[in-house]
Amino acid sequence: MKYYHPRTYEKLGFDVILQTVAGTLMTEEAKERCLNFQPYSDPEKLLTSLRRTEEFRELLIYDDPLPIKQFHSMAYLLKKLEVKGTWLTADELGRFLGWAQTLLGLRKYLQQREDKYPELQLLINRNSFSAYLIKDIEAIIDEKGNVRDSASPLLNQVRRNIYTSGNELRSVLNKVLKRAAEKNWSPGGEITIRNDRLVIPVKADAKGRVPGFVQDISQSGNTLFLEPAESLALNNKLKELKLQEQNEVIRILTDVTEQLRQHKEEIASFHKIMVELDFVRGKAKLAVKLKAVLPKVEVYGTSMELKEAYYPLLVLRSEEETFEVVPLSVQLTQKERIILISGPNAGGKSVSLKTVGLLQLMLQSGFLVPVREDSVFRIFDTLFIDLGDEQSVENDLSTYTSHLFQMRQMGDNMNHNSLFLIDEFGSGTDPKQGGSIAESFLERFVIQRAYGIITTHYGNLKNYAANTKGIANAAMQFDKKDLKPTYKLIVGVPGRSYALDIAKRVGVHYSILKKARKKIGEETIQSEELIDELESRQSRLNTLLEKSRSKEKELNKLLKETQAEKDELKQQKKQILNEAKRDARKLIKDANRRIEQTIREIRENQAEKQQTQKLREELKESMPVPIPEAKPKEEVVPEGIQIVGGEISQGDWVKLADGKTVGQLIEVKGKRGVVESGSMRLQTKLSQLVKIKIPEKKGNGSVRSNNYSLSTVNARMELDLMGKRVEEALPMLEKMVDDARLAGLKTINILHGKGTGVLREAVRKYLNDLSFVKRVYDAPMEMGGDGWTICEFKN
Question: In 10 A of CB 559, how many CB atoms?
């Protein structure tokens, strides 16, 4: 994006954003790139940059920390590699090793998260990197940045010789020092080094008593640092060995540097990647600080909609100072490409304008922005601004002349892909003439179909906006009671100045206010009061709309949660049933296998009756369910009931052929009839009934058949409540319990699933509160575990 004003960054506050990010970067190259950054002109590069920043933001918030040991600059090492014959020191190689290890660690980290951070992985995998270079350096440089003894056989031998010679030399020096100390020729102390040679301290007045060579004198002159004659040869030998060591180290470093030099282009390429990654990391850290997000970006869009947008500089300030930052919501569309904001001074007009400009500039530079996530941005080719008082001493231009110069540039260069921002449009000269010129320019901007935000006090511009397509009036809301700004933008109505109200509030004399009202004119005052009323209505409508949106958002959230819970319950039910079927198949398979084995043993062994009975007992013990003994089928007859048989007709007492339920046949319809048992009725086939004789009436006239219930037929051992709400489930459970009790069942099973546990708790609370319930517990794991509740009744 191209911008015309030379102080665009400073005017909008983008320079502060860049400085804030630069302060978090670890490499000088990334800092320089940040402070001199220009907005993207290529949409594809812009979108890639935005996605990288968004991925890094997600990483910082939700993932493990990056494995960054060293993230410093390699520029000076690359310059050194350009000069043939030079070598990198052990310390420099250590820094390069740390840098390279960090690079490989980052690549591994991102490869393990390919699906989460595809753009970052593409960035760091843009070039290959020779991992064996790291192994070569690790073989000669240790963790402290020193050349290892094992870097070469010669170096290893030389250092061993240095160690041996050093010990021998110290032994000789210790003897000389001890002898000198005994004769009071030495002030005492330890062996030290002067001019790279080992020496002993000797008193100045004992000079000549200890044969040797003076290498140094103390600052006071009282102590000589003497190399005894006895150690001269050993010192020379040690120095020669150290020179050999130094030469071998230089040779090793030169060889390794030469290997790196062959890969300098590859290293330089990865250095650029690391610098870019450092910059992306800085932008992501700012996004976390600002609570910024990646909004929807329409490259070739025709509108932009900022929802709950915050001015970043105020957000940064609010961390140090205690105040609330009020968000801005504004929309620019093809129908209303220009927003004209009016209202009192210090009401937030300029901040609103700067918010739009800074967020657009940040977005087109690859920064995330502090807006609501469903905000929509479009990409502009050019940005024009005219903000604040400005003079040009060099060109001898006044403030108004400078404004005219900026407006002329806009009028000459803007188009439908331009965004412009003008603060205090038309000010700086005679109001009447300035307003007329501003209106003429505004007509030009409308024809150009440019998008923009304008702030003004001029009434003629408000009238023009009210009567012209493509422009919308807007006002900064003002608290009429306290005469303080609320910093909320209301689109659709022009703003009023509140000058008379504020003057009255600060104590301006009534006579002056009266004259001012007269000069202003009653018509103008009434117009402002009408605007005030419109503003109040618009504010109330906006509040209602916001509440409606909030309610809708909550409702959608609840619907999603409900659907998710329902899906989870279905899945759990399916899983429980599948597990139960699988376990049942396994039990049946095991049972069949055991039965076949028993039969085979009986046949093979030709077992006698006693042996057969023993095998049968073993089989019964090993089966998951008891094997019933074969018994002849007996008809179930309730106590006191006599079966008489014969043809059945209406009015007869009957019993269900397969149960204890008895009752009176009160209606016959062909081959079907209706049986009344107590307070319940059952429709059934006549063939399913048996004619009976009931006992005679007892003392109070009751009939014993009433002791038997039709619920015997309807009672169930299992109840499926999966997916039911608590208010649906409890009545079903209550009916099942009643039926089960009347039918004489001892145990019932209720399927409710696991889910959130709400339904499970409600079921168990209901059952535990019943006086006739013996105990309530989970089903065994093979039957579904705590997804089922088993209830046992008392006898």
Answer: 10
| Buried b / exposed e along 671-683 (16+ C-beta atoms within 10 A) | eebbbebbeeebe
Cα dihedral 105, 110, 111, 114, rounded to 10, equals: 180
d(CA 769, CA 178): 97
Amino acid at 449: R
Q: Which tens digits make up the pLDDT trace of 681-719?
A: 666 778 878 888 776 544 443 343 334 444 343 445 788
Find the angle CA(74)-CA(79)-CA(81) to the nearest 5 degrees: 95
**Tens digit of pLDDT for each residue in 9-20?**
999 999 999 999
Residue 371 has pLDDT above 60, yes or no: yes
Distance (Å, whole) CA 242 – CA 246 = 6
φ, ψ for residue 458 (rounded to 5)?
-75, 130
- CB–CB of 483/501 below 8 Å? yes
* Closest C-alpha among 91, 60, 66, 81 to residue 274: 66
Provide DSSP, 46-73.
Answer: HHHHHHHHHHHHHHHHHSPPP--S----
**CA-based angle 508:511:515, to the nearest 5?**
105
Q: Which of 655, 279, 333, 593 is nearest to 471 (CA)?
A: 333
Lowest mean pLDDT across 211-225, 236-250, 410-424, 559-573: 559-573
Q: Distances from the Cα of 684 to the Cαs of 461, 647, 664, 665, in angstroms? A: 88, 16, 13, 10
Tokens standing for 524? 């103008």
**What tokens appear for 88 in the block?**
């990198």
Strand order in the sheet with 197-203: 192-194, 197-203, 223-228, 212-217
Distances (CA, A) of 649 to 637, 652, 665, 680, 710: 21, 6, 7, 20, 20
For the residues of 482-512, what is the DSSP string, one character each? TTEEEEEEEETS-----HHHHHHHTT--HHH
Residue with tokens 């800092």: 31
Please, are residues 709 and 680 in contact by the beta-carbon 8 Å criterion? Answer: yes
Alpha-carbon distance of 541 to 535, in angstroms, equals: 10
Q: Which amino acid is at 134?
A: I
Task: Tell me the pLDDT tens digit for each residue of 750-779.
Answer: 988 887 888 899 999 999 988 888 999 988
Strands 451-455 and 336-342 come out as parallel
Sheet of strand 680-685, all strands in order from the earlier edge strand to the far edge:
642-643, 689-693, 653-656, 662-669, 672-677, 680-685
Give the per-residue SS3 of 263-284. CHHHHHHHHHHHHHHHHHHHHH
Sign of the C-alpha dihedral computed for residues 352, 354, 359 and 361 taken in this order: positive
**773 token code pair:** 């319930």
Residues in Cβ contact with 86 at an 8 Å cutoff, skipping those fewer than 6 apart: 80, 257
Other CB atoms within a 10 A radius of the CB of residue 764 amount to 17
Phi, psi for residue 514 in degrees, rounded to 5? -65, -45
Q: Which DSSP category does 113 fall into?
A: T
Closest to 444 (Cα-Cα) out of 419, 473, 415, 421: 415
Burial 431-470 (b: 16+ CB within 10 A, else e): eeebbebbbebbeebbebbbbbbbbbbbbbbbebbeeeeb
Q: How far is CA 329 from CA 64, 290, 333, 476, 488, in A?
A: 35, 17, 13, 12, 8
Largest CA distance in the chain: 150
Q: Could you tell me the CA-to-CA distances from 706 to 638, 690, 691 in Å, in that order? A: 12, 17, 16
Residue 713 is predicted with a pLDDT of 39
Cα 629 to Cα 590, 591, 610: the distances in Å are 20, 16, 17
Give the chain's radius of gyration (CA, Å).
47
At residue 443, what is the residue type? E
